[in-house]
Amino acid sequence: SMHPASRVVASRCLRKTLNSRLSSLASYDLFNPTPEHAQLRSMIRNFCDQEVLPQAIEYNRKEVFNVDLFRKLGDLGVLGITVAEEYGGAGMDATAAVIVLEELNASDPSVSIAYLAHAMLFCNNLNQNGSHELKQKYLPGASAGSLICGMCMSEPGAGTDVLGMSTSATPSEDGSYFTINGTKMWITNGSLDGTDTGDAFFVYAKTGKGRAPGDLSAFVVEKGMPGFSLGQKITGKLGNRASNTAELVFDNVKVPATNLIGKVGGASLCMMRNLEIERIGAGAMAMGTARSSLDIMTKYAAERKQFGKPIGEYGQMQKYISESYSQYMAGRSYLYNVARQLDLSTYGNGLDADGVKLFCAPIAKNIADRAIQVLGGNGYTAEYMVEQYWRDSKLGEIGGGTLEAHHKNMWRDLMKRRNIL
Fold first, then answer.
1. If phi over 0 gives left and psi between -120 and 50 gives alpha, with beta otherwise, what is residue 142?
2. Which of 155, 278, 387, 397 is catalytic?
3. Distance CA 24, CA 307 (A)
4. What pLDDT sits at residue 7?
5. Partner of 122 at 20 to 30 A CA spacing, among 24, 291, 311, 376?
């Protein structure tokens, strides 16, 4: 057995190690895990204050996508935030993507959703799943902002029912190209100016006849390919009006076989893997909305006087603000804890990716709603932005997976992982 003196020394060593670890845990910042993350947040927040927020009301009112502003994100080096450095990206992690999305959304959700479609649904997706040649061809331009891109999954008749899509990709007899036919709907960055398509798209299409995951393949389709056209720019949306949403038409579009992403029938894995960062990203966007709405209503309640004192001194206002703050911090903590653990190259984090979006999206909508209530008539007008945040926030409960889809997915995952609790 161990000598008593040795036991004392061992116990002291263990205590010292434990204290050291506890000390580093206490100083750990979940929201900015490294100095690089903190610098990134500071850089994006400054950019948002100077460039994004001042244009938000005007461009949303005009329903025009601010292309020049978006390209500046390329100059900042964040359009390829998770793209490998050899393809012009920053090579950062899921937390970095979450930071950019949260900060952009706190200023203008339209810019944020265009960023999500480009940086996550196209760039990250291609970076994880494409061939070296495809990545070399498209990612440097997409990371720099000379190309503005998106992803095509939804169709007029297939939303949540992804495997019910009807867009088809038929191989040529010699195998040198695929012919794509079909229509894609609700495509963010589908058009940049309302007259033509965006620059390049990660397109899902059926290469099989059934509804099995192996019937789905993915391709890069670029602007100018014969038969690829803009069906319509969708106007009159409830929110995110300065982000262009479009219907895209594929009429016998011949796509080189080299533009196939991965293998024939291999796209379901790409989709599931990328849906995780998309849903976590949507949670980040929701937290941006929540933070700005909370900030606006708190400042307003401290300054606005009725019956001789600031309205923040009335219990009803305090209820709105304190509940909003606690929900914001709960959602943000869940978001960053899941982002911290997400390996972008793996698949299998769906339970909490769905969970983050399911939890955070309604919080954003509810906090924006309370902000309107606190501001009263002023909240109902464009000047204070909260009515725009409220309108924009509804998309979080629909796009990238409806709340109902999250319920279904999470039940399925919990049945598979009974020991998780």
1. alpha
2. 278
3. 49
4. 64
5. 291
Residue reference for tokens 């001194």: 313
What are the tens digits of pLDDT across the range 218-237? 999 999 999 999 999 999 99
Q: Beta strand 305-306 with 228-233: parallel, antiparallel or unpaired? A: unpaired
Query: How is residue 63 written in tokens?
Result: 């329903």
Distance CA 251, CA 248 (A): 10
DSSP 2: -
Res. 389: pLDDT tops 90: yes
| Distance between CA atoms of residues 63 and 235, nearest Å | 8
- Judging by DSSP bridges, how do beta strands 149-152 and 200-206 pair with one another? parallel
State residue 312's pLDDT score. 98
CA angle 145, 149, 152 (to 5 degrees): 170
Overall pTM surpassing 0.70 (yes/no): yes
Q: Which of 246, 70, 223 is nearest to 152 (CA)?
A: 246
* Residues 6+ away with beta carbon under 8 Å from 89: 80, 81, 82, 83, 123, 127, 139, 143
Query: What single letter denotes the amino acid at residue 114?
Result: A
CA distance 79 to 70: 9
The answer to whether 86 is a known catalytic residue is: no
Q: Is 214 exposed, middle or buried (0-12, 13-18, 19+ CB in 10 A)?
A: middle
